[in-house]
Amino acid sequence: MAPAEVIVVDLVLIDGELGMVKLTANGVLEAIEYGEPSRYWTVKKDVLGFVVEGKYIRIKTVVEREEGICCGEFGGDYSRKDFVFEPFSEDAKNRFCFKLRHYLDSLGRPKRLLVFVNPFGGKKSAIKIFEKEVKPLFEDADIQLDVQETKYQLHAKEMVRSMDVSKYDGIVCVSGDGVLVEVVNGLLQRSDWQTVFKLPIGVIPAGTGNGMIKSLLDAVGLQCCANSATISIIRGHTRSLDVATISQGNTKFFSVLMLAWGLVADIDIESEKFRWMGSARMDFYAIQRIISLRQYNGRVLFLPAPGFESYGQPTSYRLHKEPPVKVLGYQGPDTKFEDVEWREIKGPFVSVWLHNVPWGAENNLVAPAAKFSDGFLDLIVVKNCPKLALLSLMTQISEGTHVQSPYVAYLKVKAFALEPGALVDEPDKEGIIDADGEVLARGRRTYKCEQIALMSYDKLQITVDQGLATLFSPEY
Ligand SMILES: Nc1ncnc2c1ncn2[C@@H]1O[C@H](COP(=O)(O)OP(=O)(O)OP(=O)(O)O)[C@@H](O)[C@H]1O
Question: What top-level branch of life does the organism fall under (predicted)?
Answer without folding.
Answer: Eukaryota
